[in-house]
Amino acid sequence: MLHIVNKSPYQTRNLESCLRLAKAGSAILLIEDGVYAATRDNIAAAGVKAALGSVSVYALSPDVEARGVNNLLLDGVKLVDYGGFVDLVAEHANTQSWL
Amino acid sequence: MLHIVNKSPYQTRNLESCLRLAKAGSAILLIEDGVYAATRDNIAAAGVKAALGSVSVYALSPDVEARGVNNLLLDGVKLVDYGGFVDLVAEHANTQSWL
Amino acid sequence: MKFGIMISEGPYTHQATDTAYQFVKAALAKGHQIHRVFFYHDGVNNATRLTEPPQDDRNIVNRWSKLAEEHGIDLVVCVAAALRRGILEENLAKGFRISGLGQLVESGIQADRLVVFGD
Amino acid sequence: MKFGIMISEGPYTHQATDTAYQFVKAALAKGHQIHRVFFYHDGVNNATRLTEPPQDDRNIVNRWSKLAEEHGIDLVVCVAAALRRGILEENLAKGFRISGLGQLVESGIQADRLVVFGD
Amino acid sequence: MTESTGGIEVEEETAGRVKKFMFVNRKAPYGTIYALEGLEVVLISAAFDQDVSLAFVDDGVYELVKGQATKGIDVKNFSPTYRALEGYDIEKLYVDAESLKARGLTEENLIVPVEVLSNEEMADLMAAQDVVISF
Amino acid sequence: MTESTGGIEVEEETAGRVKKFMFVNRKAPYGTIYALEGLEVVLISAAFDQDVSLAFVDDGVYELVKGQATKGIDVKNFSPTYRALEGYDIEKLYVDAESLKARGLTEENLIVPVEVLSNEEMADLMAAQDVVISF
Asked: Which of A5, A26, A48, F36 has its CA 20 to 30 A from that of A14?
């Protein structure tokens, strides 16, 4: 299953709920303001770091670049472009957008 | 100063920021989905309870009733109707809406 | 007392415009004045005359138009925000006018209180 | 593979429709098919032909119309959501059609994947 | 039925295909329209003979709270519709236990009978769907 | 100037009145339009000769992050505008220290010089305003 999170982890608690209900082996794609969750030295990063052992975490590179946080990314988070986003959707049986 | 919070304390962190930046003696009015913060036995209630010593906390009664949480309200939270909302704005020198 | 109102969200989708409407009605009932209601961001969507809500629902746009007619309230739609969202003279509801953002700042200066309703 | 897309937010205010557009373009570039783009909630506001964004900004509505024209993509606006928000045949942009919510469920059935873009 | 279903002749277009649809409700009612418009999709989905379930997670559990009285905000109370879902053969209503508990609520506070699921149960159920539509 | 100010002859209508305006920015850029449209209000306010300040709280601090490059999302990068505010005599930019810290950011990461305030300083400043407009 591919989980898609598009909100900053500070503004909403969507990421928390996603991390709580994502099964081991599933993937999480951070898009739009969700990419802030993939930056290091922030409070939300702890949850993402802990999840990296059991789920794959991706961040959408155009959104990362737009927000100027390229150099602040957590190790272990994989960058994908829109084509990579399409591939992730195709590779997983279903998707859940945490709106 | 009158602080106005209209979001559920679970969906966003607006209430947290409001409680952090509300000065002693100021007032907080919970409206719309913000009224859930005034219900007892929930996680957000702790912050509101702690704040009750130094700030006045109000909840908009039509919003409380709409959501069916009348019987779940925290002690110490005062109910106001739309007229009371107007009075609160008039009584305080300024307002900040935590959107 | 004179109140200025800013509304940042469109009708039906967010409660902001409902709450603002009830606030304005209550303020008028208490003898206060409404200096202006300024519609910004998606708030400009309150001003389209084309909405057709279900029969058993409130009609948010008409409610504003009626309030403007009965109480002479100045309903101002931000021109820049309106152009972005497709609110033009041709689909503008009765009682609304389109003008610049300065009308919001001026309302902040002229009114005794400015209250923001949004999401 | 066949993708269904649902968009829940209006243009400019939320990035959802931008992301959905880039996703659709990338999917087409990879040889996938788009079964349908369904506009629900405030997403129906993507379908007004009246928007006039600033010159130096993207034109979100025209971008959808052009995509529909070039790739024959089915852009469906939910009728109930559209009536509530003032999107009617008279202000509908090229390439969009208004229909019922069943079109969303059908897209869920017919497409291999349904992806939701919202706020 | 063709009007509500968007002109689709359900039996012709989808004959034989039964997919697992889950509607995930995560927003409180009235503050925004997502819960109400979400319910409209659920009702339409009943016409398509699919395997439909509803999940109530996070603030979505507030949609089911008993005793909603909306006269004061001049908005229609749509909570009784959840009780009518059974008549549409939509009977799988799942509530996230942790969301309920965090809000100080129990099943007693809810307007309909539901099945309360643990994190693991909810995660399994979600992962087993063909289509997940979230509001 | 009358077009951008909504037809208002600034000097006539507001002569002599100087109020304290604070614009509170609490949203990240690009995900929603509030930051951009908020900035448009700030620029207009400069024409009215008021005592204007900007507060950046919560995700609002992300508006000021250096190195934004928006080509990939096909949206205009408006962050350089914050550097232009000085030319409009808008020089009071306040950043909430706790918001910055929680996000792993320092003043080094920001595109403009700002004054970083403690909780107490921000609370005092906010309470001292005549008009607070939040986005």
From this structure: F36
